[in-house]
Design a protein that fits this description.
Radius of gyration: 26 Å
Shape: elongated
Strand order of the largest sheet: 3-4-5
Helix content: 25-40%
Number of strands: 5
Order of helices and strands: HHEEHHHHEHEEH
Number of helices: 8
Largest sheet: 3 strands, mixed
């Protein structure tokens, strides 16, 4: 039976819990990955995904951008905003900043502006999941698939005790299925002949 040791990726990209959120996003983009184990010293302390990072970033308040100095009180476009008989409308204060309510995509798209340094003030440790979903290398692939489906996860760490051996993702399992690696072959007459590409005839 095909085991995790047969399909796992052994060259695992890991991140430190002290790594900044923006640096983690840049690393994921550069490595074309959607998540990574978080390692402190030699110990795996968690897992962080793009969803975790975006969730953290989405919860951060937008930073104001630089604007022209406001006009004198007598020059406000909406004089009712300062009507002493009525409370100033809340919308007036949110409109003071041109990026009020900016979404995460907009914030990430403008990394060169000082307003978005707020992401650099937060680290992976604030976004990561500390619950580790792991299996030993000898676990068969169908069992691993059921385990991942049960827990609603897209990757599982392959570990020997506390030592990280590799990682298996849903893409690895899909590839194994597509390549018919899970199919058992039975031959009535002798051993199968193997082509150069690894297929049988």
């Amino acid at each position: 039976m095909l085991g995790l040791a047969d399909i796992m990726s052994t060259e695992v990209v890991t991140v430190s819990p002290e790594l900044g959120v923006r640096d983690a996003m840049d690393l994921f983009i550069a490595e074309h990955i959607s998540g990574a184990p978080v390692v402190s010293g030699q110990r795996v302390v968690g897992v962080v995904s793009t969803t975790d990072l975006l969730t953290l970033a989405a919860g951060l308040p937008g930073a104001p951008t630089l604007r022209e100095p406001p006009a004198e009180i007598g020059e406000w476009e909406d004089p009712e905003a300062f009507d002493n008989e009525n409370e100033a409308r809340a919308a007036y204060f949110t409109e003071m900043w041109e990026d009020a309510g900016a979404d995460v995509a907009e914030r990430i798209a403008t990394p060169s502006t000082p307003e978005w340094n707020v992401l650099e003030e937060h680290t992976v440790s604030e976004a990561m999941t500390t619950e580790l979903w792991s299996l030993p290398a000898e676990t068969d692939v169908p069992h691993a698939a059921e385990y991942m489906q049960k827990h609603g996860i897209h990757r599982v760490l392959v570990m020997d005790g506390e030592r990280l051996l590799g990682i298996v993702t849903t893409s690895d399992i899909s590839a194994a299925v597509a390549e018919h690696k899970l199919t058992e072959r039975r031959f009535v007459f002798g051993k199968p002949q193997v082509r150069a590409d690894g297929s049988y005839w």
